[in-house]
Prior knowledge:
It is a single chain. The chain is 0% helix and 51% strand. It is mainly beta. A hairpin with a 6-residue loop joins strand 4 and strand 5. 30% of the residues are buried.
Amino acid sequence: QVQLVESGGGLVQAGGSLRLSCTASITIFMLYDMSWYRQAPGKQRELVARIPSGGRTTYAESVKGRFTISRDNPKKTVFLQMNSLKLEDTAVYYCNARRTELQDYWGQGTQVTVSS
Length: 116
């Protein structure tokens, strides 16, 4: 059974930084596209950043220049470095691993709260 375990969330002041991690129990991790999504209260889940198995990373416009996604394939881990955090970044952040429509997995989510 595939599991994605996120960590690194927490409470931070505006302007601060956090680094999220997601470790996956996937046999061939390097073949998966890895993404971070977030969902704020009362809003739909949205894509924050994606790092494909091969190819360029993509970011939501709202986080470009502030967030960086990276991956360590031997450790089967994806990271999201979040700098210059804003109040509107407050959300539950979810890790996603996708290879095909059937091989599409989610983590349990980690709360990020940015305070003024």
